[in-house]
Amino acid sequence: AKALGKNRLVRYAPGMAEAAEEEVTLLQDLTAAVRAGQLEVYYQPTIDLADGRTTGYEALLRWQHPQRGLVPPAEFVPLAEASGAILEIGRWVLEQAVGQATVWTAEAGRPIGIAVNLSPRQLADDDVVALVSAVLAASGLPAAQLTLEVTEGVLLRDVDRVAGQLRALRELGVRIAIDDFGTGYASLTYLRRLPADVLKIDRSFVQDLGGDVRSRALVASMIELARNLRLEVVAEGVETSEQHAVLGGLACSHAQGYLFGRPLPAPAHDPAQPAPTGA
Ligand code: C2E
Ligand code: CA
Ligand code: CA
Ligand code: CA
C-alpha cells in the first residue's frame, strides 16, 4: 500500500483505514484480473459532424469483476497508475485497440482511427516510444490512424522529458490529443509547452450547451482556439440533439457521446454504417 500513499495528502477521517484496505484488495484483484482475462476494451465512435460518418473510435477499458460486477475505470485506473500496473494493462489495451482498428479499416475500406488513453506514468516510461512503434509495426496500422490521448496531468511530471517523449511519438506519425481540455488549471500551459494535434473539449462544458450562455461562449472560444492553433477539435459527451445542433452552429468538426454511440465491445460496432443520431 506504500506506493498508493505517495504524493497523497493524507487526512485521518473515520472510515479511512477501511477505504485504504479496500484499495489494496482491489489492486490485488486487478493484478489477477489481467491474467484471468477479466479486462475488456470497449469502443466509442467519434463522428465527423460535417457528414455524420464514424471517423474512428476511442478505446475505453472495462473490468468485469467476478464479485463486484463492472468496475468503472475511474475506480481502478488511478490505482493501476499509482502501482505501476498501468504499464502492463496499457500495453495490452494498445495492442487490442490497434489490432481492432486494422480489422475495421479493412472492413470499412477506408482508414478508421483509434484513440488510446495514455496515463502520465505510461508517457514517462522509457519504453513507450519503442512500444508504440512495435505495436504499429506488428499490426500494419499506419501511424497516422493512432491518436494517443493525454491529460494535462502529464505536466505534473518533468515537462522537458514529457515534451521529448511526445515529440518522439509524433515523429512516428502518431497524433496527440489533449483530453478533458479546460477542466484543469493548466490547459493553456499545456498548449504552450507541449505538442498536440487534437483538442478534446471536456464533457462538463458540452453538458450545459443547451441553455447556459457562458458554456456556449466557452465552447465557442475553445473551438476558435483550436482553429487558430490548427488543431482538430472533438466535443466530448454529446447526449442531446440540442447540444449537437449548437456544436454544428459553432462549426465544431468532431464529436463523441451517447447521442452517437455508447462505449461497446468491438462486435457491436460497424464503422461502415452511419452512426445513428439517436434523437
Ligand atoms: P475519458 O478518457 O475522458 O473518457 C470519456 C469518458 O466519458 C468515458 O468514461 C465514456 O464512457 C464517458 N462518456 C462518453 N460519452 C458520454 C456521454 O455522452 N455522457 C456521459 N455521461 N459520459 C460519456 P469511462 O469509460 O468510464 O472512462 C473514464 C476515464 O477512465 C476515461 O476518461 C479515462 O481517463 C480513463 N480510462 C479509460 N480507459 C482507459 C485506458 O485504457 N487507459 C487509461 N490510462 N485510462 C483509461
Ligand atoms: Ca479519453
Ligand atoms: Ca475526456
Ligand atoms: Ca475524463
UniProtKB/TrEMBL annotation:
Residues 263-279 are annotated as: Disordered. Residues 23-277 form the EAL domain. The lineage of its organism: Bacteria, Bacillati, Actinomycetota, Actinomycetes, Geodermatophilales. This is Bifunctional diguanylate cyclase/phosphodiesterase. It comes from Geodermatophilus arenarius. It comes from the Bacteria. Residues 267-279 have a biased composition (Low complexity).
